[in-house]
Amino acid sequence: MPKFIRKRIMVTGGAGFLGSHLCERLLERGDDVLCVDNFFTGTKDNIAHLIGNPHFELQRHDVTFPLYVEVDEIFNLACPASPIHYQFDPVQTTKTSVLGAINMLGLAKRVKAKVLQASTSEVYGDPEIHPQHEGYWGKVNPIGLRSCYDEGKRCAETLFFDYYRQHHLRIKVARIFNTYGPRMLPNDGRVVSNIIMQALQNEPITLFGNGMQTRSFCFVDDLVEALLRLMDTPDDITGPMNLGNPKEFTIYQLAELVIRITGSRSAIVFKPLPSDDPRQRQPDIAMATGTLNWSPKISLEDGLELTIRHFEQYLSA
Question: Do 244 and 287 contact (CB within 8 A), yes or no?
Fold first, then answer.
């Protein structure tokens, strides 16, 4: 891309699992990328191969504090996304979602940037309708163990739409469903990484409840493509928009598939279901399909093979 039309794009949480893949894609298409991360769950290993690129800049910063930079677009991905990490310091998790949103919206207002909020399917809570569509308001426990994340993201959405109505800010809100792929942390407590790590080490695979709760798993490359397309939509398209894979699997089916791919000798064991754990999670992506001309391309089996290869490399290092 010629220098005079190169975009300056900031990705908060850019050294995390999803953020690092997004930074990579933005550089590939010719943008200048500012990666901002406080390295609570992000890691320099995720973006080490980008350091040295003249169009990539890394800045250690916590989004709960204001940041003064000049950018054209902001992808606000900063927030721990796995229960182990966001429950470690729940007050800080809420601050990251709420103050982070306020600071990124304030920055976008000052420099007239377009800003995308990485929201979550957790805004739907333990849903009473299935699949979940964007018009559903959700069923969320406001005082539970997961509330710091669920309600923090809900408040961030509120702030985005208030800035849109009050200040005419150019906003996009993406409700991201379960996403997996290389660079997931091995100890992040998410179901995909947990099951893969246990299977590769022939340890008992832990499922919670009876394993019949469902999730929909989207490979990271598909999700990043959707984020890029959403950001590039006209200004009157704001979301919130569900982004994820609509194919639904039980956790038990996921465990069986990982065991088959890895050839693991692991047995499956069951433990009590954690507090407020959703029973069902499946996105209605009709809005994304119609508006973005997007749908996931990578099957769960193909995506798992790529993800398992990443964890094999981690264990052999």
Answer: no
How many other CB atoms are there within 10 angstroms of residue 58's CB atom? 18
Other C-beta atoms within 10 Å of 256: how many?
16
Catalytically active residues are: 149
Q: Which amino acid is at 160?
A: F
Question: What pLDDT was estimated at residue 281?
Answer: 86
Residue 151, CB-side half-sphere exposure with 13 Å CA sphere: 16
Paired residues of 269 in beta bridges: 206
Rounded distance between C-alpha atoms, residue 143 and residue 73, angstroms: 34
The amino acid present at 254, given as its one-letter code, is L
Cα(222)–Cα(240) distance, integer angstroms: 18
End-to-end, the C-alpha distance of the chain in Å comes to 37
Q: Report the alpha-carbon distance of residue 168 to residue 69 in Å, rounded.
A: 21
Hey, what are 304's tokens?
């798992």
Q: What element of type H or E holds 205?
A: strand 205-208
Contact 15, 34 (CB under 8 A): no
Determine the Cα angle at 285 with ends 85 and 63, to 5°: 35
CB 205, CB 268: distance < 8 Å = yes
Amino acid at 45: D
Block mean pLDDT (10 aa), the chain, length 317: 78 97 97 97 96 97 97 96 81 95 98 98 91 93 91 97 98 97 89 95 93 93 98 98 96 96 95 77 95 97 96 90
Structural contact between residues 86 and 189, judged by C-beta atoms closer than 8 angstroms: no
| Sign (positive or negative) of CA dihedral 43, 46, 52, 57 | negative
The β-bridge relationship of strands 214-216 and 248-250 is antiparallel
Residue 2 has what pLDDT?
A: 56
What is the pTM assigned to this prediction? Answer: 0.94
Q: Looking at residue 31, what is its pLDDT? A: 97
Of 170, 214, 182, nearest to 49 by C-alpha is 182
